[in-house]
Amino acid sequence: MIAKKVLLVGNFGVGKTSLIRRFVLNQFSEDYISTIGVRVSSKIVQFEKQEIKLLIWDVAGTSGDEKIPKAYFLGASAAMFVFDLSREETYLSIENHLESIRNLSSLKEVTIVGNKKDLLTKEELDAVIKTVSVKIDLITSAKEDDNVESAFLQLASQAIK
Ligand code: GTP
To answer: The domain containing residue 80 runs over which residues?
Structure first.
């Protein structure tokens, strides 16, 4: 079986840990315990008849221009940028964030995920999609288990490219 390191990055409190928790354990908690440093979980996924062991690095959230330590990206095959659909500050400078991640990691593509869909009405969601200056790959809710598996499968597909 092949093992691939993948990373989740994004601002504080956007739901990185919650997405991983939903994907790996099928659990959700309203409690917010901020990640310190990095935490690694793993799950085996089936993708195009291949078994892939995803080593999922949950990186502590950043704010503003704060950089993710470059060492976290060593050996990473794919990365997911998570933002919070209900908090503008987590997606307003998304292009800068993505540029910085591409530079640090040398990854060409980054999977872009807008989380906490459950907090928005359809109209609000449409407005956010219009505002975000890049193509959003997946809209998820870790709380309601909406699109979470698809987000990680997309990450796995990028990891084996
Ligand atoms: P850092 O570790 O600080 O970077 O945060 P994080 O990105 O890992 O966020 P975390 O998963 O800890 O979630 C932050 C808060 O948002 C928690 O209170 C979660 O319960 C809540 N949350 C996460 N995902 C969702 C979601 O899809 N919907 C709703 N309503 N709340 C969510």
So the answer is: 2-159
